[in-house]
Design goal:
Blueprint lengths: L10 H14 L1 H8 L5 E7 L8 E7 L17 H14 L2 E7 L1 H7 L1 H14 L7 E5 L10 E4 L2 H4 L1 H24 L5 H4 L5 H10 L13 H5 L3
Parallel strand pairs: 1-4, 4-5
Antiparallel strand pairs: 1-2, 2-3
Helix pairs in contact: 3-7, 4-5
Length: 225
């Protein structure tokens, strides 16, 4: 179903999409029934790139709300992520965005920087969630009671929503940075280590937004570039 918003017009496709969304809501439904009304799904994107921040999003939706087509952001094309991000924002109780810069990634390591971005996203929600659902492993010092779900962006509706918001936000940021730092192809590669990006690094050297602690940047760091 990559890049598709779920079945419209086809009754069988519509039923399949309802079943899929019901499965995505299973963990949240259990928590709602236990009295946790405001659930925040949290996910981050951008651990792997050579440049740019890691970005996290936190999303709180009204109990029972399921948005057709929501899935792990990696399974959706850019157009559908943009469409879904608009719908998620329009239907959410609250959305928070947090980021950790390339310098913070170098200082703390990318895992700890990801956790920092998650904490910032939750603080910026503007509401106090009753429980948090986090993609991956438990987050030390998150500051909120939370449940960690491995592959949560593919298994939990609110976490999938957070993954979409985070991905769209980071892609837009990298497109803006590409205007200030042309030649690296960030408008297309979002800072990942594509051949174009590596060739530009060899030709132009690193920018202030490159992660100097990452292995491909180590030769330039050693040379004091």
């Amino acid at each position: 179903m990559a890049g598709r918003r779920g079945g419209t017009g086809d009754p069988n496709a519509a039923r399949r999409e309802r079943r899929r969304l019901s499965k995505l809501l299973a963990i949240e439904r259990d928590l709602w029934e236990r009295g946790f009304e405001l659930l925040a799904g949290v996910d981050e994107v951008g651990r792997g790139p050579l440049a740019g921040p890691v970005v996290a999003a936190a999303v709180v939706l009204p109990p029972g709300v399921a948005i057709r087509g929501v899935a792990d952001s990696k399974q959706l094309d850019a157009r559908h992520r943009e469409e879904l991000a608009r719908e998620i924002r329009s239907r959410a109780i609250a959305v928070g965005i947090g980021a950790a810069s390339s310098r913070e990634i170098d200082r703390y390591n990318v895992l700890r920087a990801s956790h920092l971005a998650m904490r910032r996203a939750l603080v910026r929600l503007g509401v106090q969630p009753h429980h948090v659902l986090v993609d991956g492993l438990p987050v030390p010092d998150l500051g909120y009671e939370h449940t960690a779900i491995v592959e949560g962006d593919a298994r939990v509706h609110s976490v999938a929503c957070a993954s979409i918001i985070a991905k769209v936000t980071r892609d837009r940021l990298m497109q803006r940075l590409a205007l200030a730092y042309p030649g690296y192809g960030w408008e297309n590669n979002a800072g990942y280590a594509t051949a174009e990006h590596r060739q530009a690094l060899a030709r132009l050297g690193p920018t202030p937004h490159h992660r100097l602690s990452f292995a491909p940047l180590q030769p330039t760091l050693d040379l004091g570039v």
